[in-house]
What does this fold into?
Amino acid sequence: MEKIISLCKRRGFVFASSEIYGGFQAVYDYGPYGVLLANNIKQAWWQAMVQAREDIVGLDSSIFMHPKIWEASGHISGFSDPLSECKNCHTRSRVDHLLEEVNVFADEKMSEDEVNKIFDEHKSKIKCPSCGKSDFSEAKKFNLLVKSNLGNFTGDPMENPSYLRGETCQGIYVNYKNVVDSTRVKMPFGIAQIGKAFRNEITARQFIFRTREFEQMEMQYLTHPDNEMKEYEKLKVDRFDYYINNLGINKDNLRWHEHENLVFYAKAAFDIEYKFPFGFKELEGVHARSNYDLTQHAKFSGKDLEYKDPQTGEKYLPHIIESSVGVGRTMLAVLTDAFVEEELGPEDTRIVMKFNKKLAPIKVAVFPLLKNKPELVSKAREVFDMLKLKYMCEFDDNGNIGKRYRRQDEIGTPYCLTVDFDTLEDGCVTIRDRDTMKQERIKIAELTSFLAKELE
It folds into this structure.
């Protein structure tokens, strides 16, 4: 994990937010290559989830929504984690995370009393992550919603708060009738969204795996109650295959995990887990939620949210299955899966990010062999300008060719093109493959067709 974090900082993938001020816990900034990788991940998800399917449409709901939405969804009363404070150093930790360190697991639906009963039984074996002592306060439930004073101009700004959304799916639920009324969708159909969410996490751990500001990619699929489980099984297959076929993730690093204790309204809940450096953890949730969410919003809003079948006239509240995954978690999985250290010889180790070529931040790097030869630089610029509007390219003339190759290896660039003196005579460049390091000569006139075949 330390090597991945170091590479992310060194090569401009991920920075600690507000670093010059000492950082801001559990918040990260994506650097020049990180934002490109994240955008490619989002594009791959959108292409597979919306563009490739006729039954799923997109949405971009607002981060701020009516506070009653969070009351209806249960977030105000029940969206919480158990917190305990070390009496020695006053570090606050999530109790379920502390228990995991001694292989004991607390269910998120447990009451404070139930959590404390388990916590008390194992406190003596648990060490504070900061000071190593075993002296903890009683566990207390801590709500994760982030409060705001938006629209509140008088009195206590926290007295009647609005909230930054804790998840993106609620914006889909409250807009589902708008989508039905304004488009030609018919049951079953899905609504997909990519957007920011915020959670006041007690403790931040494991780099960008768990953060307080994050981006979700969610799809809520609405269906007739009788077809919920059939559509659910289809979605499970699609989502697992997506990581292998679309993102190029190693199948051996993926597995299913079934939730043992379901919330009362759920029919099924499975997580796709990825083998991160800290072990198998949730990457994506695939859940069958019945019609609970729409029932709650119909109750609290007083609006009729039933769907009327245009063919049969049947009216019903749709049941919902969902796919939910974070951009950050996907990015960490992609970074972990791509990270390779290769021993090329005595004291010669190459770090290379073997991204799926479609996800690579930079697709092509163009080098003049020498930066002090204007004719080489001019020709390299010509090649760069020819390709840059089609692919994300980088022009690099700093240092010797070997060092430039290594820099591009570390950001995962699939192809490096070198313009040399022979190029001026034969119109060919040397193209070097990231994964094999093999080099071949190819005519500049054939570059576009070659790259289209390899990258598209």
In short: The first helix runs from residue 2 to 10. The CA atoms of residues 61 and 237 lie 28 Å apart. The longest strand covers residues 279-290.
